[in-house]
Amino acid sequence: METMTSDLRDLERALRRGPTQGAGDDRRAASELAQRAVREGAADIAYAMIDSPLGALLLAGTRRGLVKLAYTPQGPDPVLQALARRVSPRLIEAPGSLDEPRRQLEQYFSGERHEFELALDRRLMSPFARRVLSVTAAIPYGSASTYLDVARRAGSPRGYRAAGNALGANPIPIVIPCHRVLHRTGGLGGYGGGLERKRWLLELERGE
Amino acid sequence: MSTAAVSLPPFQRFLDAHRAEVWRFLVASVGPSEADDCFQETFIAALRAYPRLPADSNLRAWVLTIAHHKAVDAHRARRRRPLPSEAVEGSPDAGHATARSNPGPPHAAAPAELPDGELWGAVRELPPRQRAAVLLRYLGDLSHAEAAAAIGCSEEAARRSLHEALKRLREVWRP
């Protein structure tokens, strides 16, 4: 009876441990899954993490285009959670789906590219923010505008602060160059990614 | 967007949290060569249904239930195929891929210790409900009630199947 019980315990232990065949293949299977999920349209958002001179960036795209570019000082999770809540929880890491924005960003960071040619998904912008950011997108590489000017062009000359908020909440920085908007006095103003990064981008564009 | 979706984790995090146990479950249930297809089917189905899931769901039990259904489908499909199913039980040199295509004589004496592959071969040969009961309970670490819900039988029936399965496995499992 003793041995019967200990046999059973050994068997239970072996069953709990699971098979050793194919161990570790789950990572490969999961990455194949991501590609298939995007191909079949089962995922609503594909994202990728990329390295950049400004630190790790998170890129996220929907069927419509690039929906989010984020600096990730706290890691990707806060950004992913916000996307899951505001767009869709069907969100999967599929780096291959973001190859084009990644390529254009690399060219931008090396100074080869001055304009982005990417489809954008603007659903994370309010109607006012869309106006402000579309004015901002027209500021040429290497030059700068002011909050007041952007607000005026967006049809809201008194909306100086609101324009500042819309720029601060820009869901697609760098590609929509909110770093090119400065204070009228010549001060840097603010930047969602921190002023260090704003300064770095402005210097990059001045060829420094 | 429904309020239920508010606190669901991003799907990728759900996948990160459960992919290893779903993979183990499927390798144990259908074998390494068919686990991949079942894994893909399981998580694609999970992804499609994901936003409709109540936020307070037991995600682990939910995804193992889907994996269980995909494994049942794979076993059914295998039975429909013209070739005989893999016979691994009893052959002393089993547990290796080469032994699979050439099953040894079933009358050979049981080895002192059953190789890993052979235990799982024996699990795969169990009747469907017994196999499910063993895998959901031990590999999936589900409660009797959760395992029963996944199989779609009463808790009593799931316990009985588990008991029967262990009895059978102990006939081949001799440590």
Largest sheet of chain A: 4 strands, mixed
Q: Would you tell me the structural class of the helices and strands of chain B? A: mainly alpha
Count, helices of chain B: 8
Based on CA atoms alone, the radius of gyration of chain B comes out at: 18 Å
Give the CA-CA distance, first to last residue of chain B: 54 Å
Verbal overview:
Chain A has 208 residues and is of the alpha/beta class. Chain A has two domains: 2-109, no CATH class; 127-206, Arc Repressor Mutant, subunit A (Orthogonal Bundle). Helices cover 43% and strands 12% of the residues of chain A. Chain A contains eight helices and six strands. Chain A has helices at residues 2-17, 26-39, 77-86, 99-109, 127-137, 147-153, 160-168, 195-205; strands at residues 45-50, 57-61, 66-71, 91-93, 145-146, 181-182. Chain A has a four-stranded mixed β-sheet with strand order 3-2-1-4, sandwiched between helices. In chain A, helix 6 (147-153) packs across helix 7. The radius of gyration of chain A is 23 Å and the shape is elongated. The mean pLDDT of chain A is 93. With 175 residues, chain B is mainly α. In chain B, helix 1 (11-30) runs antiparallel to helix 2 (32-49). The longest helix of chain B has 22 residues, at 59-80. Chain B is globular, with a radius of gyration of 18 Å. The N and C termini of chain B lie far apart (54 Å). Residues 1-5 and 85-113 of chain B have low confidence and may be disordered. The chains are: A alpha/beta (208), B mainly alpha (175).
